[in-house]
Hints:
Pfam families: Acetyltransf_1. This is N-acetyltransferase domain-containing protein. Residues 3-153 form the N-acetyltransferase domain. It is a single chain. This protein is of the alpha+beta class and 153 residues long. The protein has helices spanning 13-26, 37-45, 98-112, 127-135; strands at residues 4-7, 52-57, 64-75, 79-89, 118-120. The longest helix has 15 residues, at 98-112.
Amino acid sequence: MSIIIRKAEPGDVPAMLELVKELAVFERAPDAVWNTEEAMLRDGFGEQPFFHTFVAELPETSEVVGLALYHWAYSSWKGKYMYLDDLYVKEKMRGQGTGKLLLDTFLKEAQAQGANMVKWQVLNWNEPAIKMYKKQGVTFDNEWIDCKIFYPK
Length: 153
């Protein structure tokens, strides 16, 4: 089965949000998504986008079956870098290389744009993803603890 990896367009937002919701279910947090199509359109495709996305598309049907959503960040030690917020592939497409294609495209984009590093998180029980990342030579950091404060709407 062939897959097209391309930059997301505004018309992809409904499929992107649906994939984000599927990811939340996969990550055992089905009610955690607050985002909306309107916010994703504004924040990803407005005058100054906060994030960028690559999508995986089936050419036969134009169905979006995966995404890599990322944004720029800055490290006082390393300088500018890209943070991969979501890498997700629909269940029916897993194990066929779609996730690797998305990851490879993201990594090439980071290098082309002059990022000094890339960073992302993976749940410690997501063994298929961890296995894929190990093949990429990823460094796993068990020393740092994530900190968050939510501002509910």
